Amino acid sequence: TKNFKINKRIIIFSRDELKQFEMQKLFPLKKYPKLRFFLGDVRDSERLNYAMEGVDIVVHAAALKQVPAAEYNPIEVIKTNILGSQNVVSASIKNHVKKCILLSTDKASSPINLYGASKLCADKLFISANNFKGSKLTSFSVVRYGNVMGSRGSIIPILLKQKNKNINLTHKSMTRFNITLEESVQLVFEAINKSVGGEIFVPKIPSYNLIDLAK
User: Fold this and answer.
1) Can you state the percent helix, strand and coil of the chain, rounding each to 5?
2) Residues identified as active-site
């Protein structure tokens, strides 16, 4: 990024050891010596504190995102999306992180389900953190965008699997905001470079009708 040169390390922090294993095969340590892989969960504040030692920038992407699963397991979503986000805030302040960016979702705007409501709470926690961080220089901002095209859990892979069968849509008038993976990553870099704390970055992105996509 423009204002922060990555000259030390990039830490991937997650509880998914399979994804980390697959990523290590794609980015082997000999070729990418700046990469580090830490197992841990945002629910575990002590582990977060250790993982963030000496870190300058945090991008908080951890969340439980499946809408039906969230409705069926509400307390688990609250533990990760809300309490986990507060743990990230606290660990960032404690470790003098310079910038902390939360990845949010369009479903946090006027939410109608628990997932959206939990992400709205996370947004509020990050924005309010700028008010109680005291003398610490950590800034907290939010990036809120739509569905990342073709990502795990998005509708495109599901439709492709159903292409020779009956396709199930929630409602014929349902729409989705759409953003590519490259655009979403670029937006995060922009937020890191431009944020001063307290912003919710919302890109102007196109939407499409799901029935058109299905066809």
Assistant:
1) 45, 20, 40
2) 107
